[in-house]
Each structure stands twice: as C-alpha cells, then as structure tokens.
Amino acid sequence: WQTENGVLLPSLQSALPFLDLHGTPRLEFHQSVFDELREKLLERVSAIALEGKVEERYKKLEDLLEKSFSLVKMPSIQPVVMCVMKHLPKVPEKKLKLVMADKDLYKACAVEVKRQIWQDNQALFGDEVSPLLKQYILEKENILFSNDISVLHNFFSPSPKTRRQGEVVQKLTQMIGKNVKLYDMVLQFLRTLFLRTRNVHYCTLRAELLMSLHDLDISEICTVDPCHKFTWCLDACIREKFVDNKRARELQGFLDGVKKGQEQVLGDLSMILCDPFAINTLALSTIRHLQDLVGQDTLPRESPDLLLLLRMLSLGQGAWDMIDSQVFKEPKMEAELITKFLPMLMSFVVDDHTFNVDQKLPSEEKGPIPYPSTIPEAFTKFLQENRIACEIGLYYILHITKQRNKNAFLRLLPALVETFSDLAFSDVFLHLLTGNLTLLGDEFALEEFCTSLFDGFFLTACSRKENVHRHVLRLLLHLHHKVAPAKLESLQKALEPTKQSGEAVKELYNQLTEKLELRKPSPAEVTETPSMELPLPAVPTPASR
C-alpha cells in the first residue's frame, strides 16, 4: 500500500531509510512534499491566469475548479480551490451559492470572489459595509471632540490625500475594486444614511471614495461617475484651502454644463459640496474675497468670483433638501444676501480698520473713541433665517477670533445664541471656535469676557445640547488655569453633569475636577500662609534717611 500510494521516484526508495535513521517520521516527509507541491500548484494557477488566449486560460481554470471543488472543505486543499476561484472573472453561479451558504468558506474566499457574490446580493454587501461606515463616523466625531485643542492642528488640518489613506476608505476601495455595480451600491448606502441622519460626514466619504479610486487610476469607475472632474478640481481647492480664479472658472464650467435631462447629477454634486471640508474651503475663500473687496471699494454684487462661491455654498447647503425632495434644481439665491448681508459684514471690517486707525491717532480732549458695541438687528435676523448668511457669519466670527480681535468677537457673540437650525452649536463650528479661543487665553482672566462667552453663549445651550456641554468642558480642560478662581467655581457648578448626561460628559467633568483638585493649595500651605503676614520690621528706605 505504501509503495502504491507513495512518491513514485525510483531514486527515492533507497533514500527513505536514510530519513528513518534520523528519526524523521514518514508523515513529516510526505507533509513537506505535499506543501511544496501545493505551493508549485498555486504558482502555476496564477501563471495560467496570465498566459495564452483569454478563452483558453479560463477554460483550464474552470476545468481545474470542477475537479477540485469537491475538496474545498479540506484545509490542505482549500487554498488551491480559492486561488482558482480568485483568478476566474466569472465563477459559476452554482459554486458561488455553495460558498455563500457556508460561513467558513465565505470567510476564506478572496475579495475578488466576494465581489461576484456581493454584486447580486445587496443585503450581504450592506452587512459588510455597515460596520465600516459606523467606524468612519465615529473616527470623525472623535477628532471633533478630541481633548487636544489647537489652532494649528484641527479637524481640517490633514490634506485630502492623507485623509484618503484612512483605514475605512482604503477597505471600501479594495472591496469595490473596479466593480461599478458595487460602487453604485456604496453611493446609494451613503445617500440613504445621509437622508436618514443628516450627518454630513457621509458627504465627505462620498468625495474621499471617488478620489481614492482616482488615485488608483480606476478609469472603469471614474469615467462613469459624472462628478469625477468636478470633485477632482474641488479636491485641489480643498488642498490649498482656497478657490483661486482659474479653478473657480473650471468649477463654474461644470455647474453650467449640466444639461437638460441630466439634472439628477446636481444631487450628487450638492452632496460633494456639502462635505464639511468643501464648505470650509468655500467659506474661508468668501471671507478672503470680502476683505479684498473692502480694499478695492467694490460691492459684493460686482464680484463674479464671490457670486460663484455663494452659488456653490448654496448648492452644498441645500443637498439634504434636494435629495429628500428629488427636485434637482439649484436653490434660488436671495438677493438680500448679496445686497444687504455681505455689505454689512464688510462694514464690520471697516469698523475694525477705523477703530485701529483711531487708536493710533494722538488723543484729543474728547478722549478715545469707544469700539462700536451694538450690532444691527438685521445681522441677527439674517443669522436666524438664512442658512448661507449664517454659515458665512460664523466663519467671519472664527476669522476675527483667529486675529485675536476681542472687541469684534464680544460685539458679535450675542448674535450666535439663536442661529439657523442651531448652526452655532454644531460640532464643526464649536471645534474650530474652541481652537481659536486658545489665542485669546489671557482674556479668560477677565470677568466681563467670561460672562459674555460662558453665560451669554455656551451655557444657554448646555442643558439641551450635550455636544455643547462636551465642547465647553474640552475648552476648560485646556484653559482652566487662565480663568479667575471665582468664575471657575461657578462654572464648575453650572457644568455638573445630570443623571441624563452621557458617559463622555461625565468623563470630561471628572477629568476637569481632578485637574482643579491638583491646583488647589495643600492644607499645609494654607496654614502656613498667615505667618507671611506678620508685621515686618520697618527698614528705612534710602529716600527717608
């Protein structure tokens, strides 16, 4: 039996007793031969998949699969069967169904085979993608709520290319491969989740996924996605954090080029423009344009570049409504936004210039001119009723905070208490605001500043919005040593978590309490302090001699 089933090599028969002398069991010898043969077979399968005419090579592989598939559950043979399936562009339906029905086989097969299973089984593909999407959203939220508050390293610091290297984007890119059907399925999942949750991070993933496939030159998908060139151009703007004139014209060309009957593409374009990274770039560019216009004595309505930025902001901000209503047309821009609101923002810039010039002039008898403290009622109204105005207004406030312009910040802060759909209490804005406020660290020692910021703004929403509670605690963890002790004590009481508060709030509050405990002087120091107040012997000063 051994002779019949052994390795039939005449020269081997005399060599085998030599192994016996070394105490090597025959099983070990046969196992190593088997492993070696399997490696050779795997190499040969991979080679067959690349040689000869297409029909012939796949015929060979199909024959091989037919012969070997019955042994697929044998651990030693399984890798060969899986390798054959991996190299077949179309595995027979019957075999796919058998793999799908067996959990272990499904787990063991290559992603190339899984793609063939997924493209006809949306529910199964959804089960695979869903945990990745949850992980992606969680990662974004963790960055927004990170305890590291910095004006230099914030949510928007990583470049688009760096973000695309993230685990989730890379996994999804690999799962999709060159399969247009799977790509469409992922986009459909993202649209559905965006509609269900209004979470704008799904829009970021939509753009990142397309650009990740673009990086790999997967033309099969990039050429059929009508948003590809628009996203590519916008991606370059996001990298620079500015929309220059040349790219602005390109982007305008794409928007103007949407033909009749193809309006549905606006739904996808609006989703790409709704990505917080796109909104950030458009809003920063808008603020920069407004400052330039002040210097040029030009009104907003006379700047085509500015009007294009507003058009894109409007399209991005209207993404949810457009996809929800399935009415694919660009939102109408309100004339008052351009004729009243933006000139009002420009007047604030002028107020700052005027005040700064006044400060430098020699003071006359009438005394220094105070900084304007009132804000036009119309400004507050715009922030409450117009989404685009609100977004630009918030970015203007971030801009003045970054410039350490305390006067302008305190003047406009009351307008943030009530904004369009509470945008001033959104995570992205609060993340940026807390970072910029670190530049005004020394102001936290002043009662007036703290009262305006905490009592007048943050604490108005803490009880109803847990995210605001978290952001305030993040800020205090970073700047508590700058705040006056009496104010800090009252803030500590006001920010105490309730029974309904989530774990994150409780955890942050405990961290803050620990930090404050460490700062308190120890009892020993407290008892010694009176000794310092003993009357000191009078020492005559040189002047009194």
Describe the fold and architecture.
By secondary structure, the protein is mainly α. The chain has a domain of about 110 residues. About 70% of the residues lie in helices and about 0% in strands. It has 30 helices and no strands. The chain is elongated, with a radius of gyration of 33 Å. The protein starts with a helix and ends in a 17-residue tail after the last helix. The relative contact order is 0.05. GO terms for molecular function: translation elongation factor activity. InterPro entries: COBRA1.
Strand percent estimate: under 5%
Approximate shape: elongated
N-to-C SSE series?
HHHHHHHHHHHHHHHHHHHHHHHHHHHHHH
Distance between the termini: 123 Å
Tell me the structural class.
mainly alpha
Quick check: average pLDDT? 89
Low-confidence stretches: 524-537
**DSSP strand tally:** 0
Rg over CA atoms = 33 Å
Taking the sheet with the most strands, its summary is: none
Q: Count the helices. How many?
A: 30
Helix content estimate: 55-70%
Question: What is the strand and helix layout of this fold?
Answer:
Blueprint: H1 2-5, H2 10-21, H3 26-48, H4 54-68, H5 78-87, H6 93-101, H7 103-108, H8 111-118, H9 122-144, H10 160-163, H11 167-176, H12 180-197, H13 201-215, H14 219-222, H15 228-240, H16 245-256, H17 265-273, H18 276-296, H19 304-317, H20 319-325, H21 335-360, H22 377-385, H23 387-402, H24 406-412, H25 427-437, H26 447-462, H27 466-479, H28 485-494, H29 503-519, H30 523-528
Helix pairs in contact: 3-5, 4-5, 9-11, 9-12, 11-13, 12-13, 13-15, 15-16, 15-18, 17-19, 17-20, 18-19, 18-21, 18-23, 21-23, 22-23, 23-25, 25-27, 26-27, 27-29
